[in-house]
Design brief:
Largest sheet: none
Helix content: 40-55%
Radius of gyration: 15 Å
Order of helices and strands: HHH
Number of strands: 0
Amino acid sequence: MDLPEHLHHLVSELGDSLVKALSEDDHCRDLAVQIQAQGYGLMLILEASPIGAAQRHVSDTEDGDSSLPFSEDDLRLMKSFKIRMD
């Protein structure tokens, strides 16, 4: 299934932000180095898939933007990785 362009952009931006956050974390970086030292490569894969009729939009984000297709749990997770949605 092809993603709409705006969603593809958001997923791509999220992937970039996650990679940056993980690479800036000393513990994550050390773990990645240990895994690579054992001859393994690492790849971060994000998949966006429709969740059917239960799809929700957050109505009360910090900036009042109700068009973001993320649940409150999604936003909490991203915040824990210091990912801002602005």
